[in-house]
Amino acid sequence: MNIRTEQFKKQAALALKDKTMQEAISRASRRFSQNRTKAFGELPEAEALRTRAHEIKAEAIEHLDATLEEFTASAQKLGIIVHRSADGVDACRYIGDLAQSKGIEMVVKGKSMTTEEIDLNRHLEASGIQVWETDLGEFIIQLAGEGPSHIIAPALHKTQQQVAALFTEKLGVPYYEDPEKLTMVAREFLRDKYFQAGLGISGANFALARTGTIVILENEGNARFSTTFPRVHVAVVGIEKVIPGLRELGVFLKLLARSATGQKSSTYVSLIQGPRRPGELDGPEEMHIVLLDNGRSRIRQDVEMRPSLYCLRCGACLNVCPVYQRIGGHAYGWVYSGPIGSLVTPQFLGIQRAKYLPMASTLCRACAEVCPVRIPLPDLLLTLRRRIVEQHGLPWLERKMMEIWGACQTSPGSYQAAFGLARIGQEFTPGFLPAGVQLPEKNFHRIWKDGQD
Amino acid sequence: MDLNTPSSLTLFIPCLMDSLYPQAAQGLVVLLRKCGFRVEYPEVQTCCGQPAFNQGYFELARKLARRFLDIFEGAECIVCPSGSCTAMVRKHYPELLAAEPVWLEKAQTVGGRLYEASQFLSMFVPTSRIKASFPGKVTYHDSCHSSRSLGIYQEPRALLAQVKGLELVEMADSKACCGFGGLFSRRFPEVSQAIADEKVKQILATGAQWVVGNDPGCLMNIQGGLNRVKSPIKVKHLVEILNSRS
Amino acid sequence: MDKTDRLDRLELELKALQARTFRAGDPAALKEILLSLCRDCPPEAIAREDRPWLEKLDLDIPVYKPPVYMTADGLHPGNGPWKPLRDITVGITGVDYALAETGTLVLASGRSGGRGLSLAPRHHIALLPLERILLSLDQFLDLYPEGENFLSQGSAVTFISGASRTADIELNLVLGAHGPKELSVITLCFPVGIAG
């Protein structure tokens, strides 16, 4: 997708004018977060599980090299071909070459933000391969040519009328507004594709080092389809997804669906352990796992920022974020939005390209309250702000004003002088204080002083 | 009074309250004196450094932190009518000064003696002593720092419950951010206002005549939002309510 | 928690997931239930998994396996007649384990012979032996610690909790997004002679 992180301020302002999108995002975030609260309320050991989840991730990522090696060996024992990609270019090339070498003309894809991160679809389409997103939300935004507006529900911003019009235009079907009918349209349309496609591409939520298993959580069944019927399956997995094994997986399975949508469990949890085995009627003949780095080791080495990699991509932080709720996902300009987007985007793309993202937070801490792996999001955003300041990333004028303000705080005389100036200045700078708010004649310093005499 | 109740209190008045709501600061002084405390106010105090800290200007924040600690280090007990400023000193000063052992210790000492106003009143003042009276329908806004950083939720409500004539109605989500975020409101004014507008919607739905909170920044931002929709609802700081007589 | 308690809990959770639940006291009862569930379905559109204990139940339902059934498009020149999986509207499978707490069915591809029959048909009917109902995921993990034991279960072990669903369009819940629209779980309350 086209990266538009530099235009965050403009996009946020535009998003605020889109009342339909705001309504949709607002309603959805509220529903998700209410469901999450209810689901967590019903889980007695919730807090202990969150702490445990944090510890598992912290350890796995601390020992990432060894864990990845173990995973690779285990996966290879299952007959899986494992490829390490340092970056998106390599991953796209590997998958593109694989598809070409097998004469593959059509690909079906399960939902994978990692593949959006590396623009895989565009690469494959450039070599004449047809790529079909099969997750309903992803399918909708693919037809619309848009990016995701939410991490787990990418087409949240679209009304059923908009989807109906889209399907009529792009698929040639009659205009149905009913979501059930629209879903059936997508189901029918994509059904053939699963059987025709030569390659199925998926992501993975977890990769288990001890057994070489990848784990995919979903509700629709499209990932199961994409990883069962095409002859070749490629799973693109961020290296931060590895955890030791099944026991650890159990902790996350208790948390992930509840955090994302409030469900006790996702409808389907697939533990995939290699291509089709003798005696099995279906399953791919060949299975590849692309372990993608794309900046993750660099983030890992930055110990202060390492917890950024613990993210389970559940979207809980988005749902409670007052900023996200007002501006939706597109304003963030890249694949990841909301608090986690503000955190990882500058790290992936470089602070200069996305410096307003860490700024776009009131540091209200609602995200930290709900993160299932206890990523200290506000503290990490603040660390990014500190680095932006240290690298002189902010306009000279702003730095100067902060300097002057700081100087005024260092003595009561200058402090009072500043107050006096501000009182005069407020007449000439409307909008500096909120509507109708005025600085009084005397501040408390003055009142106290007067009272003492 | 119990053994640990301090006799003299030192006031830490947030710069925003000093500039915008001095009458609330004055109200706190009167209230604390009524409760039998001697009240001191170091006039040389300015700002705790939170605006700088929140924008990533850590060096400047450290400078102001050291100045603050010098001013308050001798205090027996410090009371602050703001959740965010209290959290700044208690939680963030030790983080900022972690690499300077002498200052770190000062920060921990001072932080240990610092109380947000509603916390202080809940801990050290029997409710019967406050004897406030404020007829009216009130809704309470929990500032992010108060509720999430300091865990304050029951204290203001318990205090308001004792106010004669006051009816407390809760908004749908009292902990939802008001959109101020310090300089965030200057950097992203439209987003800040949009967040405040959501808060205002909730407030209007309660039918309350007053919005009460313990954070001057929040109160200011909320008042702005209320003014934008020409609502007659006014904000009031918690300590003003507690100091009221009908 | 005894077997019946676990079954009660499982059925509670399944109903919350829009699945239908039945109990069969004996093979005759099972046949009755299947008959009524498949009443509106042409016989050539029903198929069952090729498990030994399903075979023993003598259900008189075609088995899903080559040479008659193929998962792919069914267009293999020269060798017909192939029946594509797409034409199956009712898929009857066994269940390896169920987890009562979350209403989850566990199916291992190595046991069932494949993944497709619980995925592609519009209606998935799952036959669950009573003694295979566990309380929780933790209990399941206790049975299958890591290692060869677990891997022997197949190339895919799938945890199914309810019918396929999506809420991607304005948060309206729709069943049958890609996977089965209907899920019916029949608990077999009589011995079925499963080995292992």
Question: What does this 3D model show about the protein?
Answer:
- The complex is a heterotrimer of chains A (453), B (246) and C (196).
- Chain A has 453 residues and is α/β, with parallel strands linked by helices.
- Among the domains of chain A are: 43-294, Rossmann fold (3-Layer(aba) Sandwich), CATH 3.40.50.10420; 397-452, no CATH class.
- Chain A is built from 21 helices and ten strands.
- The model of chain A has no long low-confidence stretch (mean pLDDT 94).
- In chain B, helix 11 (189-206) crosses helix 12 (216-228).
- Chain C has one domain: Rossmann fold.
- Chain C starts with a helix and ends in an 8-residue tail after the last strand.
- Chain C has helices at residues 3-16, 27-37, 52-56, 109-112, 137-143, 148-151; strands at residues 20-24, 46-48, 69-70, 83-84, 90-94, 97-99, 104-108, 123-129, 133-134, 156-160, 165-166, 174-175, 182-188.
- At the A-C interface, helix 2, helix 8, helix 10, helix 11 and helix 12 of A face helix 5, strand 10 and strand 11 of C.
- Strand 9 of chain A pairs antiparallel with strand 10 of chain C, so a sheet runs across the interface.
Summary of the model, kept short:
The complex is a heterotrimer of chains A (453), B (246) and C (196). Chain A is 51% helix and 10% strand.
State the main characteristics:
heterotrimer, A: about 450 residues, alpha/beta, Rossmann fold, 6-stranded parallel sheet, 4-stranded mixed sheet, 10 strands, globular, B: about 250 residues, 4-stranded parallel sheet, 13 helices, 8 strands, about 50% helix
Judged by helices, strands and strand pairing, the structural class of chain B is alpha/beta
Count of helical segments of chain B?
A: 13
Q: Terminal Cα separation of chain C, in Å?
A: 22 Å
Radius of gyration of chain C: 17 Å
Please, what is the oligomeric state? heterotrimer
Cα(first) to Cα(last) distance of chain B is 27 Å
Uncertain runs of chain B are: none
| Shape field of chain C | globular
What is the CATH T-level topology of chain C? Rossmann fold
Percent helix of chain B: 40-55%
Strand order of the largest sheet of chain C: 1-13-8-5-2
Counted by DSSP, the helix tally of chain C is 6
